[in-house]
Amino acid sequence: MFGAFPQDEIYALGTILLVAAIVAMLTRRLHLPYTAGLVAVGLLLAVAGVVPHVRLTPNLILLVLLPPLVFEAAVNIPWHDFRKDLPVIVSLAVGGVAVTAASVAAGMYYIIGWQWQPALLFGMLIAATDPVSVIATFREHDTEKRLKLLVESESLLNDGIAATGFSVCAAIVAGEHAGPGSISIQLLWTTGGGILCGLGVSVVCLLIAGRTTDHLIEITLTTIAAYGSYMLADHFGMSGILAALTAGLVVGNRGPERALSEFGRDAVHSFWEYAAFLANSVIFLLIGAREATLPILVLAGATAVATGLTLLGRAAAVYPVTLLFNRTALAVKPAYRHVLVWGGLRGALALALALSLDDSVPQRGAVISVAFAVVAISIFVQGCTMAPLLKHLHLLRGGEGEAQDNGTES
Where are the alpha helices (DSSP H) in 210-299? Predict the structure, then answer.
């Protein structure tokens, strides 16, 4: 009846959609992060022996689920505000990846005793942030505009830089020649090429979209912009994340003005909001299911050290970087700095990079297990305490957490 589609996978997708809908309703009623609820339910289902027949693989995350997440986030970023805060955002992203990766790698090597190869790769992959539940909390509680921009934009650039750095580290571990010159060329090719791919594909899609008022065609063209830019960049060894980010910025900021019809704008935003919801549902439910199969207790010491080092590395990057802008028009509020540190959750990209490690990498199993554990801890601990932190810092508009929205003013 279903032809080439395995029935197990169809049933699994139906189960995931049903669970996602129920968890979304329950977490909203209980005022809990949706992602934490999905991970918890996935863990319970695995313990009960009811696990969806879908494997969490690098290709599933990187090629299927990550493009809509990056694109949807970028579509909602206003270019004017993004451009104005770009020096802060780039500094935070670069500093966040570099300092966190170095801190974690050194700690896993000297404290836990891992070999330098897995320590280096783990440090780089765990530097990637994924504040999905934090952004959801922002939207639910109507948090200040600039704070949302800094957290979401920095995370997107952070992911692109972390993925690029991971590929460089993987090449070094594999024994490839990696001098300063070759590394610089690779970084330029990866980042610059990714941005150009996103720009080229999105512009072509918008030019075509401008010739129709059919919202279904407009949605289809934005889907091509998201996946097409990502896959084109990935095919040529460029950053698919930066490509999808660029495409999203172009579509979100130029599309409504010059290409998309009035009805199409709302349809496009609704479609990508649902696509991001579906992608997050699959990712975090499967994260919970995978957690139940990993030897977390055996690696409790390594997990505790890695979690602590990740937070310390994040703090060691955010506070000094933001202090650099203290005497400028781009000064970052002290309260924002605390949220940027605590809101640096780990997520899908870190797991995809961990799962993509070659079998020849020493202690590969330990790297994967600790990565999953650190991601889960950040989702539960940091994600579930973000709303109280925002309230304590008076960053919520309305009610007890009322604060004035100063836009991009400091």
Answer: 215-235, 240-258, 262-291
Rounded CA-CA distance 229/75 in Å is 14
Evaluate whether 132 touches 345 at the Cβ level (below 8 Å). Answer: yes
CA neighbor of 144 nearest in space, from 383, 400, 398: 398
Identify whether the C-beta of residue 43 lies closer than 8 Å to the C-beta of residue 289.
yes
What number does CATH give the domain 7-145+261-401? 1.20.1530.20
DSSP 49-105: T---S----HHIIIIIIHHHHHHHHHHTS-HHHHHHTHHHHHHHHHHHHHHHHHHHH
Taking a C-beta distance cutoff of 8 angstroms, is the pair 267, 92 a contact?
A: no
Extents of the domains making up the chain:
7-145+261-401
Q: How far apart are CA 92 and CA 402, in angstroms?
A: 27
Model confidence, pTM:
0.89
**pLDDT tens per residue across span 54-84:** 778 889 899 999 999 999 999 999 999 999 9
Locate 162 and state its tokens. Answer: 């972390």
Q: Which of 184, 185, 191, 195 is nearest to 164 (CA)?
A: 191
